[in-house]
Design brief:
By secondary structure, the chain is α+β, with helices and mostly antiparallel strands. The protein folds into two domains: about 220 residues, MetI-like fold (Orthogonal Bundle), CATH 1.10.3720; about 120 residues, no CATH class. The protein contains 15 helices and nine strands. The strands form two sheets. The protein has a five-stranded antiparallel beta sheet, with no helix packed on it. Strand 2 and strand 3 form a beta hairpin. The chain is elongated, with a radius of gyration of 38 Å. It starts with 18 loop residues before the first helix and ends with a helix. About 30% of the residues are buried. This is Sugar ABC transporter permease. Keywords: Cell membrane, Membrane, Transmembrane, Transmembrane helix, Transport. Belongs to the binding-protein-dependent transport system permease family.
C-alpha cells in the first residue's frame, strides 16, 4: 500500500502526465490548430472584404480608362456633378425619414398589439412583407403607384375620395359638332349669335363617352314657351351611321345634367341644367343673351396624383420601404417590450400617470437600447438602398429619385462607364457607413460590460 492509497499526501505529478496535461488549452499548446481553423474564414474575409475595399480605394485614384492617375479628382466630382448631388440629397432624406418613421411605427404597433387578442395575427400580417424580396416589392409598388386609377390602387383610393367631395364633370372631353354655331373659349363653348324667347336653340355635341350617358333619354326637340328661352342639348351621333347633322334624330340621346348659362356683356344673367331628354328652359332675362356651356361640363376626369412624378417619387419609394421594414422594427421592439418589468408600469399607473405618460416616461426610456438597435440597423440598411429605387422610379423620374448606391451602379456600368468615379462613390458610401457602425459597436461593448 502506497501513501496515496493510505490517505497520505499524493506524490508530485510529473510534467506531461495526469490531469495537468488534460486541462491545458489547445490554443496554448498548439497555435497551429487555431490558425488552421481560422484560415478559411480569414481567406474569405480577405477575398470578399479587404481586397475589394483596397482595390476600390486604389481604383478611385485613376480616370475612367484606369491608366491615368487623377488623385482626388474623382472625390471632388462627388460634390460638383449634379446627378451625384441629387443622389446625396436624397440619401440624406432617406437616412432621416425612413428609419425614423419605420421605428416609430414599429413602436406603436408593438405597444398597441400587446392589448388586443388578435395581436399575434396583426404582427404576422405586418411582418409578412419582410418575406418578399426588394425586387418583388418594387414591382408591387410600381403597380400600386400607377397613374391610371383602373390599375393603381393608390390613385383608385385617392380618386374615390376626391370624387366624394368634388362633383366630376358630366361629359369630360365632349365638344360641339363642327359648324354648330358654337365657339370655344377657355374650355367653354358659346353660341355665336344671341338667342331669343320663342326660338328654341339647338346645342349638338359629339365625343361623349357611352358610359357618361347614364340615364339619358331619347332627345326631344324643345318647344317655344312664352317669355322663356328654350333649347335642347343632345349627342348628335347615330350608331351605325345615318342621321342628319344638327338635327335631332329618333335614336339620338339627350344630355342630362349639362349646365347652360345665359351671358350678356360677359356677365351671367341666368343659368339652368338640362333634363333627362336634354331640354332646358331659361327665364326672360336670357332673351337676347348668348348661351354658354361652361368648361366645368367638359373638364377631364380627375386622374389622381402623379405619385412617381419628380415631386413625389422619393416620398413614394420611402413609403414602400416603410411598408416592408416596419414589421422588422415591430418584432424587435415587441421582444424588448416583453422584457420590460410590469411592476414599473403598474407603479406608474398607481401613482396617477395616464397611459400616454406611462408610454412616454416609462415605456420609451426602458426601450431606448432596443430603439437604438433598430434605428442604427435601418440607417445602415437605408444607406445601401438600391433595388426599390431602380425598380419603382420610371425613367422620367429616375434622376429625381437617384441615390448613391444607384449612382454607383450607373457610373460603373451605365452608359458613361467610369469605374474610377464609381469606386470613389463606393469609398464615400463606406465612409458614411463607418460612423454608424462605430456607434453600434460601441453600444454592443457597453452592453457586454454590464
Amino acid at each position: 500500500m502506497n501513501a496515496a492509497t493510505a490517505g497520505g499526501p499524493a506524490g508530485p505529478v510529473r510534467p506531461g502526465t495526469g490531469t495537468l496535461r488534460r486541462v491545458k488549452s489547445v490554443a496554448g499548446t498548439r497555435p497551429w490548430v487555431a490558425a488552421a481553423f481560422l484560415l478559411p474564414a480569414l481567406v474569405l474575409l480577405g477575398a470578399l472584404v479587404v481586397y475589394p475595399i483596397g482595390f476600390s480605394v486604389y481604383r478611385s485614384l485613376f480616370d475612367a480608362s484606369g491608366n491615368g492617375f487623377v488623385g482626388l479628382d474623382n472625390y471632388g466630382e462627388l460634390f460638383t456633378d449634379e446627378r451625384i448631388r441629387i443622389a446625396l440629397k436624397n440619401n440624406v432624406i432617406w437616412v432621416v425619414v425612413a428609419p425614423t418613421v419605420a421605428t416609430a411605427l414599429g413602436l406603436i404597433f408593438a405597444v398597441l398589439t400587446e392589448r388586443v387578442r388578435w395581436g399575434t395575427a396583426f404582427k404576422l400580417v405586418v411582418f409578412m412583407p419582410m418575406a418578399i424580396s426588394m425586387l418583388a416589392a418594387g414591382i408591387i409598388f410600381r403597380l400600386v403607384y400607377d397613374q391610371d386609377p383602373e390599375r393603381g390602387v393608390a390613385n383608385a383610393v385617392w380618386v374615390s375620395i376626391h370624387d366624394t367631395f368634388a362633383e366630376p364633370a358630366p361629359y369630360p372631353g365632349a365638344k360641339p359638332r363642327p359648324n354648330a354655331g358654337l365657339t370655344a373659349s377657355g374650355g367653354a363653348y358659346t353660341t355665336g349669335k344671341p338667342v331669343r324667347a320663342g326660338d328654341p336653340a339647338n346645342l349638338p355635341l359629339v365625343a361623349v363617352q357611352p358610359g357618361d350617358l347614364g340615364k339619358a333619354r331619347p332627345a326631344t326637340a324643345a318647344r317655344p314657351e312664352p317669355g322663356k328661352v328654350t333649347g335642347t342639348a343632345w349627342l348628335d351621333f347615330t350608331r351605325g351611321g345615318g342621321g342628319h347633322p344638327n338635327i335631332i334624330d329618333r335614336t339620338e340621346k339627350g344630355l342630362p345634367g349639362l349646365t347652360v348659362e345665359a351671358v350678356k356683356d360677359g356677365r351671367t344673367v341666368a343659368s339652368t341644367t338640362t333634363g333627362p331628354d336634354g331640354r332646358f328652359a331659361l327665364p326672360a332675362a336670357a332673351d337676347g343673351a348668348k348661351l354658354r356651356l361652361p368648361a366645368s361640363n367638359f373638364a377631364a376626369a380627375y386622374n389622381g396624383v402623379n405619385w412617381l412624378g419628380p415631386a413625389l417619387v422619393t416620398p413614394s419609394i420611402i413609403g414602400s420601404y416603410i411598408w416592408m421594414w416596419a414589421g422588422f422594427a415591430m418584432v424587435l421592439i415587441a421582444a424588448g417590450l416583453a422584457s420590460v418589468p410590469r411592476e414599473l408600469l403598474e407603479a406608474a399607473r398607481v401613482d396617477g400617470a395616464n397611459e400616454w405618460q406611462v408610454f412616454r416616461r416609462v415605456t420609451v426610456p426602458l426601450l431606448a437600447p432596443v430603439l437604438v438597435v433598430v434605428l442604427v440597423t435601418l440607417m445602415i440598411n437605408v444607406l445601401k438602398i438600391f433595388d426599390l429605387v431602380y425598380i419603382i422610379a420610371p425613367g422620367s423620374s429616375l434622376k429625381d429619385a437617384n441615390v448613391l448606391a444607384l449612382q454607383l451602379f450607373q457610373s460603373s456600368f451605365g452608359t458613361d462607364v467610369d469605374q474610377g468615379l464609381g469606386s470613389a462613390i463606393a469609398v464615400f458610401l463606406l465612409l458614411l457607413v463607418l460612423p454608424v457602425m462605430y456607434v453600434n459597436l460601441r453600444r454592443l461593448r457597453k452592453e457586454r460590460s454590464r
